[in-house]
Amino acid sequence: MRLFSCDGCGNTVHFDNETCVVCTRRLGYLASRRQMTALEASADGWVSVGLGENFAFCANAERGGCNWLVHAQRSGELCLACRHNRTIPALTNDEATMAFRRILSAERHLFYSILSWRLPAPDKTEDAEAGLAFDFLADQIGPDGTILPVMTGHVDGVITLAVAEADDARREERRVQLGEPYRTLLGHFRHEIGHYYWDHLVRDGGRLDDFRAVFGNETQDYAAALERNYREGPPADWQSHFVSSYASCHPWEDFAETFAHYVHMVDALETAHALGLAISPRVSAPEQLDLEVGFAPYRQRDFEALVHAWLPLTVAINEINRSLGQQDFYPFVLSKDVLAKLRFVHDLIAPHLPSGVG
């Protein structure tokens, strides 16, 4: 994630900021320009201090805390991200509203990546068949009083997200139950969008043979594969071939987990780049762990450059966590097979970058 500056006073601001803490101006994000701008109230809504143009906030600004902007003539409409939301939870109390705000925050981070790569993401009004939509659903109470949990997943361009995943305590409980090293709201978005792009970039993009050579044959029984995974667990050597234990259950899940991991990697590298991080530890080893992210990760066509910067960054983050008495922040092993799968995802995305980039 980039750092931004307030074009009213020059102060550094962040992606989710709604107000500049220095000049106190309202802030809004222009997704089409990947730019944050300071705003002042006007008769036509809000005028950008830096651009001199009139804008309105997304219709989810008040209830959902969305800080994305639309052009003034589209006042009352949803932004580029929120317009994909087909179903939202009933906002009947503060708890539900806060959960909705957390969900929209994670969704905006997802769309930051999608738009940075210029990946296609039409909504269902633009493309009823291939468009993307989100259903944010709350658990239901059965006739006998038992909770009927919503299952997060993807079918035909519709991503269902369980609102319960916005509850940190419940999500952590679920993470421990399933033995997952990593489970976040943003991670769910990135995983499920991987299924969506498998449909459009692999299946419909003529890449099935290439996919099967790297991930395996996806025509194997999916339901049986999931049932076997939950019954028997992953193979003993899963870390040699998969980025997570769940990825080992079926090629579709392997791709979605790998896609999510690729987004984690690129977005974290952009944050390191924005912060000007440079790491060169003094260790006695054949290869020095040397990090200086001197490029724009979201525009990088060279996969090796991404990996060369990523590995030392993860070592540094883990060492800092250990020094604070915490578990490894990055508990993953990027084996040769996993790197080949990450490269496959990279090669799917790279053609969508603007020409001359990287």
The strands making up the biggest β-sheet line up spatially as 3-4-5-6-7
What structural class should be given to the helix and strand makeup? alpha+beta
Rg over alpha carbons: 21 Å
- SSE string: EEEEEEHEEHEEEEEHHHHHEEHH
Largest sheet: 5 strands, antiparallel
Q: End-to-end span in angstroms?
A: 17 Å
Quick one: overall form?
A: globular
Mean pLDDT across residues: 89
Portion in helices: 25-40%
Number of DSSP-assigned strands: 15
DSSP strand (E) fraction?
Answer: 5-15%
Number of helices: 9
Poorly predicted runs of 5 or more residues: 281-291
Considering the chains and any ligands shown, give keywords for the structure:
alpha+beta; four-stranded mixed sheet
Describe the structure.
The protein is an alpha+beta fold. The protein has helices spanning 61-64, 94-117, 168-178, 185-203, 208-215, 222-232, 251-275, 303-323, 336-349; strands at residues 4-5, 12-13, 26-30, 35-42, 45-48, 54-57, 69-71, 85-87, 133-137, 140-141, 147-148, 153-155, 158-162, 278-279, 291-292. The chain has a five-stranded antiparallel β-sheet with strand order 3-4-5-6-7, with no helix packed on it. The chain has a four-stranded mixed β-sheet with strand order 8-9-13-12, covered by helices on one side. Strands 1-2 form a two-stranded antiparallel sheet. Helix 4 (185-203) crosses helix 7 and helix 7 packs across helix 9. The longest helix is centred in the last third of the chain and has 25 residues, at 251-275. Residues 281-291 have low confidence and may be disordered.
